[in-house]
Amino acid sequence: MNEVKSALEIAAVDDSKFVLLSVVGSVFCCGLDFDIIVKHLKYNRKRASVKLEDTIKNFVNFFIVFMKPVIVSVKGPAIGLGASILPLCDVVWANEKAWFQTPYTRFGQSPDGCSTITFPKIMGRAAANEMLINGWKMNAQEACDKGLVSQVFWSETFTQEVMVRIQITSCNSFVLENSKALVCYNMNVELKQANERECEVVKKIWAPAQGMEYMLKYVQNKIDAF
Fold first, then answer.
1. Cα(110)–Cα(53) distance, integer angstroms
2. Looking at the predicted structure, is the pLDDT value of residue 137 above 60?
C-alpha cells in the first residue's frame, strides 16, 4: 500500500495526464495479506492495529483526493481491498477472466475502501450486501452489469483494447483534472467519512484477542486447504 501511494505521489506532480493502474501477471490484487497482519498483531495488538489502520486509511484517502484520472486494467482476480478501491478510480476495464470478491465476513473482517458507501450506490443495496456480507464472487460480465466495471474485453486482445481506448492522452491536463474534480466534488467528503468509519471498525476488530482468533482461524484454514 505504501509503495502504491508513493508511486501516486510521484504521478501527482509529474507531467503525466493520467495513471494506468495494472499488474504484471494474472492476478490483479488479492487484498490484505492476513499472514503478515497476524504476525504484526501477535506482539502488540493495540499499537499494531493503530498502525495498520492508519496505513489503510491513508492509502484509501489518497485515491479519494488524487486529482488526475485513474484508469484501471483488471486482468484477473480482484479480492478484498483490491475490489473495494475500484469505485474510487475513474475508469475500470476488465478482461473476461477477471472476477471480483469481497469476502470480509469469512475472515472476520469488516468492509474497507469506502465500499460501504460506493457499492450500494453503484449496484444497489441488495447486490452490495451479497458482495460485502455474503462474499458473492462476481464475474467480469456481472461486474459490468452492476456498474463496478466500465467494459469487458476478450483476454487475448485485452492489452491492445486498453491501449486503443485510452483517448485522453491528447487532452488538456487542466481540463482533465477539473472535469474529474467536478464529478467527485459532492462525493469526497462522504467518502472520507466512510473511510474513517470503516477504519475505526477495523481497528476495533483487530485490537481484541477475539479478532486475532478469527484471523488465525482463517489463515490456518488457508494452510489446511493448501
1. 12
2. yes
- 32 labelled catalytic: yes
Residue 30: partners with Cβ closer than 8 Å, 6 or more residues away? 77, 79, 80, 82
Annotated active-site residue in 81, 86, 132, 148: 81
Of 32, 88, 132, 191, the catalytic one is 32
Which residues are paired to 92 by β-bridges? 72
The answer to whether 117 and 67 are in contact (CB under 8 A) is: no
160 vs 38, higher pLDDT: 160
Average pLDDT, the chain: 88
Q: Give the three-class secondary structure for 91.
A: strand
Cα 46 to Cα 211: distance, rounded to the nearest angstrom? 12
The distance between the two most distant Cα atoms of the chain, rounded to a whole number of Å, is: 54
Supply 147's cell numbers: 456498474
**Where is pLDDT greater, at 25 or 46?**
25
Cell (9 digits) for 185: 466534488
Task: Give the contacts of 69 (CB within 8 A, at least 6 positions apart).
Answer: 17, 18, 19, 90, 91, 168, 176, 180
Q: Which of 41, 90, 112, 148 is catalytic?
A: 112
Task: Judge whether 15 counts as a catalytic residue.
Answer: no
CB 197 within 8 A of CB 116: yes
Q: Is residue 86 among the annotated active site residues?
A: no
